């Protein structure tokens, strides 16, 4: 009888052990069953530091804003971010620009 858990990605029941890892043959996902499971969204800044809701970040490069007459400049401080699902995983408001979505790879935590 199979006592292994289903795959966390595709929920397949055909999981097998490969050394210390569990492997799903249907989606090729590998994971460590003994590792801590992170709750909620995980976003890392450009330096690999974990971000959380309410953090303050700064931009690490100039970013072009579609439809805006000027760019967001490097060093712009963004307060009170909110993490969301998707490619642009930071929701925020920037003074002078309004509501924006940013990628976490273009910011660093203050």
UniProtKB/TrEMBL annotation:
Q: Which domain of life is it from?
A: Bacteria
Q: Where is the Protein YjdM C-terminal domain?
A: 44-110
* InterPro entries membership: YjdM, YjdM_C, YjdM_N
Q: Which Pfam families match?
A: YjdM, Zn_Ribbon_YjdM
Known Gene3D superfamilies for this protein? 2.20.25.10, SH3 Domains
According to the entry, every stretch annotated as the Protein YjdM N-terminal domain falls at 3-32
Please give the family membership noted in the entry: Belongs to the YjdM family.
Name of the protein in question: Protein YjdM
Organism of origin: Streptococcus danieliae
Upper classification of the source organism reads: Bacteria, Bacillati, Bacillota, Bacilli, Lactobacillales
